[in-house]
Write a structure and sequence with these properties.
about 500 residues, alpha+beta, 4 domains, five-stranded antiparallel β-sheet, 16 helices, Spore_Ger, transmembrane helix
Length: about 500
């Protein structure tokens, strides 16, 4: 009876720490066939694998224990070594840590006459399987994408990087959510000062909780009011692999299918994993197209308004005649026409994101066609204006990173206002302020808009991969060499034959 009271007291203590209203399952049982030793197994329903609990914990303890464990001094060690067949099992004495492990999906074995608890890894529940990345598709790259389970995401990275120097550091952030966060970096490549800076920022966070890696980024970023992203988020393990090998740090958050890497530079957002799978000239050509597309998105509408309003003499006569003809009877000015059509496109874009995928695609395509045709027939906008807006919109699709794409589209609005009121001088001033601002921006101590001579191999164009023997100099690292010049061996062999 005394043992039963002691057991119930320990169960009540754990219940109070876990929360009385949580669906905590308490399975009391007797160890062994002939023994009278009481025990209890505690877990939260829905977070554990009940089949594992039944077959690997309860069954052997209830039906396979022949000895009298009540008289043993090292009860927990005997049970772990002889009767529990689960690989991840350990002993814990801190009852607060016991409650935290229960909330994470583990089970706890409780005994009446000891201050120790056995923590059993029975984490289960339903998770989304590994699928093709939805937002970052590729033709020749991997088909694996991150999921919402932290352990699965870490395993996807460890499968690709089998280096002993790959370090994994765990943190728990959030007073109420207790969200698991993992930092991954390669110890003999990454700069330890940046690693320590990021860890200090994460440890300083004191919030009830957060809903994903996007909020966590905003808590620790250096320039919270900047329109440019200061970290790179991706759902592709191969991109994280490349970033880690360059000396960056990866942050994984439980419950989020996006992994964040830092520090970053501007040019990283114009690169894709497919650039390195294609031939050199093809990869370089597509990368140049992305930079041209960014320039078009920011500048083309503003240049069109400037030419129409201030400098029509710069337009060739053949085009000028067509523009004048298209603008006959148009109610709105070129500036208001472009602004209104840009806003309508933003409506369609945002609406398409919030709807189911098939309906969203239909809305974006059909809505754009119908509204554009109706606006032209109603003499609200000219066909030339619609063409300019359409080109700028299509150009945004060439920018591979969604966050950077939105940032560039946002810059186009003040550039449009500057072009309308100040002409070419306003556009030049706008670009001056943008470039100046980029030069002052940093990402965790790394200049955002800076490159070294050796880094030009992989910025505007992409040289052959066998020539990229050095890591990017802009990213601090302790080991700059990533490959030897092995192509010389091929040349010597060829000449020797």
């Amino acid at each position: 009876m005394e043992n039963q009271n002691l057991l119930q007291t320990k169960i009540n203590s754990i219940k109070s720490l876990v929360g009385e209203k949580n669906e905590l399952i308490v399975r009391e049982f007797v160890i062994g066939k002939s023994s009278s030793m009481d025990a209890a197994l505690l877990y939260i329903n829905g977070l554990t694998n009940r089949q594992t609990i039944d077959s690997d914990v309860l069954r052997p303890l209830m039906f396979k224990v022949e000895e009298d464990l009540a008289v043993t001094d090292n009860l927990e060690d005997i049970i772990i070594k002889k009767y529990i067949s689960i690989s991840n099992v350990f002993i814990e004495q801190d009852i607060n840590k016991v409650a935290l492990n229960i909330k994470r999906g583990k089970s706890v074995l409780v005994f009446p006459g000891t201050a120790k608890f056995i923590i059993i890894d029975t984490i289960g529940g339903e998770y989304r399987g590994i699928e093709d990345p939805i937002n970052e598709t590729s033709v020749r790259a991997s088909r694996e994408g991150f999921v919402e389970k932290l352990e699965t995401n870490i395993s996807l990275i460890r499968r690709r990087i089998k280096d002993n120097s790959l370090v994994e550091e765990r943190l728990v952030i959030g007073r109420r959510t207790s969200t698991d966060v993992a930092l991954l970096y390669i110890d003999n490549i990454a700069d330890i000062n940046i690693v320590n800076d990021i860890k200090e920022r994460l440890n300083a966070i004191d919030v009830d909780g957060f809903s994903g890696s996007g909020m966590l980024e905003q808590f620790i970023e250096c320039y919270p009011y900047s329109i440019f992203p200061q970290s790179f988020s991706t759902e592709r393990p191969d991109i994280v692999q490349s970033d880690l090998l360059e000396g960056r740090i990866a942050m994984l958050v439980d419950g989020t299918s996006f992994v964040v890497t830092f520090p970053v530079v501007l040019f990283e957002f114009f690169q894709t994993i497919e650039d390195y799978s294609e031939r050199t000239y093809l990869g370089s050509f597509t990368r140049l197209l992305r930079y041209i597309a960014a320039f078009i998105v920011i500048t083309l509408p503003a240049i069109y308004v400037t030419f129409i309003k201030f400098n029509p003499e710069l337009i060739p006569l053949k085009f000028l005649g067509a523009i004048i003809e298209s603008r006959k009877g148009i109610a709105l000015t070129p500036f208001m026409s472009i602004l209104s059509m840009n806003l309508i496109i933003e409506f369609l874009r945002e609406g398409g994101l919030r709807l189911p995928s098939k309906i969203g695609q239909t809305l974006s395509v059909v809505g754009g066609i119908i509204i554009g045709d109706a606006a032209t027939k109603a003499k609200i906008v000219s066909s030339t204006t619609l063409l300019i807006v359409g080109i700028a919109t299509v150009a945004t699709f060439l920018i591979p990173n969604y966050e950077m794409s939105l940032s560039i589209r946002l810059i186009s609005y003040p550039m449009l206002f500057l072009g309308n009121f100040l002409g070419m001088l306003g556009i030049a001033a706008g670009w001056f302020f943008v470039i100046t601002y980029l030069c002052t921006l940093e990402s965790y101590g790394v200049p955002y808009f800076k490159f070294y001579k050796n880094d030009l191999k992989d910025i505007f164009i992409r040289e052959p991969v066998w020539k990229m023997d050095k890591r990017p100099e802009i990213i601090p690292n302790v080991n700059p060499t990533r490959q030897s010049n092995f192509r010389n061996l091929f040349r010597r062999k060829k000449h020797g034959n």
